[in-house]
Design goal:
Blueprint (H helix, E strand, L loop, with lengths): L10 E2 L10 H11 L23 E4 L4 E4 L6 H13 L13 H12 L7 E5 L3 H7 E2 L10 H25 L4 E5 L5 H5 L7 H11 L7 E5 L6 H4 L5 E4 L1 H9 L2 H9 L3 E7 L3 H4 L4 H17 L4 H6 L1 E5 L8 H21 L5
Parallel strand pairs: 1-10, 3-5, 4-6, 6-7, 7-8, 8-9, 9-10
Antiparallel strand pairs: 2-3
Length: about 350
């Protein structure tokens, strides 16, 4: 069944992770560059803000690891977790203002004075495969490899996502939410030496998005078997178009089917690796993007369908860049979006 979400037509947006630390500046910067589709920012490199609601966690600060603790005395946490899940208690899985003040700062600003152009608000929290890689078992292996832990993580990811969607819609009625569950370590599981079957990965991704009615989004910046994501129920695939357009084109048949069922593609065309970024210009990146589009069209994908279903953003987060470099990336994204929308007649 074809999905009927509004088409982006090269709308500019961003990923959550940014290098800014001043919350007022962070919010202002994102809204200046992305008034149509801002993303709730993340101003920390720590992933701990995503763990609220997950039971049996133990943090080893010395080893900088997060473990699933299977000790019997923590069984009560697991029982409560499943009870809350069965009850549909989304607030149990809430992300608090203490853990993530950056999310609340943006929501407050959008509630008080939303940009007149505002259509979408995006957010990201770890997808179940990524979460199952970050949280490890006592032997250091991914908790995703353990059937029980994997079930907990899939359910926790789904409930956290539902809570975030609910929170955004309560604060900003009428906005369309973009729910991004990035899977940045997916290559670890899909490589020849990886663990986890294709069916397990697809099932986990689908369960992370279960029962959501908003557009769902997956970011993966590595080069993977892209047909895997096209077989999931995700609506938007966000890939590193700067480096991997040719690889993505190898899956043109599956991509065509994905787009025809209502899927969308997010071109991460602006690099966030410093040495690559500093050698590029807006014209050079527009040229690279157009080459990617033309390559897909030559592979049999309908051009009108492709361009109407395209988002523009960076290849990954800007969190490892300087403030000035992040501003440069955001400015390039905005300008490329404007150029492409004008070229294809979408700026009216």
């Amino acid at each position: 069944m074809r999905k009927s979400f509004e088409r982006p037509y090269f709308t500019a947006t961003s990923m959550g992770g940014v290098p800014y630390r001043d919350l007022e500046k962070t919010v202002r910067t994102i809204l200046d560059y992305f008034p149509v589709a801002p993303c709730l920012p993340v101003t920390t490199r720590s992933s701990r803000w995503m763990f609220e609601g997950i039971p049996c966690l133990r943090i080893d600060r010395e080893k900088r690891k997060i473990f699933m603790d299977p000790s019997p005395e923590r069984e009560i946490e697991l029982i409560e977790f499943y009870e809350r899940y069965e009850q549909g208690d989304l607030d149990y899985f809430a992300t608090t203002a203490q853990a993530a003040p950056f999310l609340y700062a943006m929501l407050e600003k959008l509630k008080e004075s939303p940009p007149p152009e505002l259509k979408w608000v995006g957010f990201h929290t770890a997808g179940p495969v990524l979460l199952g890689d970050i949280i490890v078992q006592t032997d250091g292996s991914p908790s995703f490899n353990n059937e029980t832990y994997r079930d907990v993580i899939k359910k926790a990811s789904n409930m956290k996502t539902k809570w975030l969607v609910k929170k955004i819609k309560e604060e900003i009625p009428g906005v369309e939410v973009l729910a991004d569950l990035p899977e940045t370590t997916l290559v670890n599981f899909t490589s020849s030496g990886g663990t986890g079957t294709r069916d397990e990965i697809i099932k986990a991704i689908n369960e992370g998005f279960q029962d959501l009615t908003c557009p769902t989004w997956i970011h993966c910046c590595a080069n993977i078997d892209w047909s895997l994501l096209m077989e999931t129920k995700v609506d938007i695939i966000n890939f590193d178009a700067y480096q991997h357009s040719e690889n993505m084109a190898l899956y043109s048949k599956q991509l065509r089917q994905f787009l025809e069922r209502g899927g969308m593609i997010a071109w991460g065309i602006v690099p966030v690796i410093e040495e690559l970024l500093l050698k590029e210009t807006v014209p050079s990146l527009v040229e690279r993007l157009e080459k990617g589009i033309n390559l897909f069209v030559r592979q049999g994908i309908d051009e009108e369908l492709l361009v109407s279903s395209s988002w523009i953003l960076s290849s990954c987060e800007t969190i490892l860049l300087t403030h000035e470099q992040s501003d440069l990336v955001f400015g390039m994204i905005k300008e490329i979006s404007q150029i492409m929308r004008k070229k294809y007649g979408f700026d009216a």
